[in-house]
Amino acid sequence: MSATIRITVAASPQGDPIPSVMEPLLAISISQSIESVDWTCLEDLFIRAPLGARSAAALEQVFRNSQIALFAYDDDRLVAAGRALTDKVSWTIIFDVVVDPDCQARAWGK
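Predicted structure:
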């Protein structure tokens, strides 16, 4: 199954908690599509994040072998990824959450 979700991340010019005027910062697409991933870009992202050096081939293997894999794009640029293993009943373990350093500390997780 593959799906893409488009999200616009926005903030007020004044940094208000509930802004009346929003300025778009990024237009992010979240994708489950493994087939469209450029594994060398993911390899570079892991190095820059920094989560350590892993080969593109190793990353492809672990992401393909995971039950859940998500990729975030700003236009066509890979900016984040993560994967998980689950029994789909009572547990899920999240692995390898990586975010481009240029996109970190923007409170995306709040």
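Summary: DSSP finds two helices and five strands in the chain.
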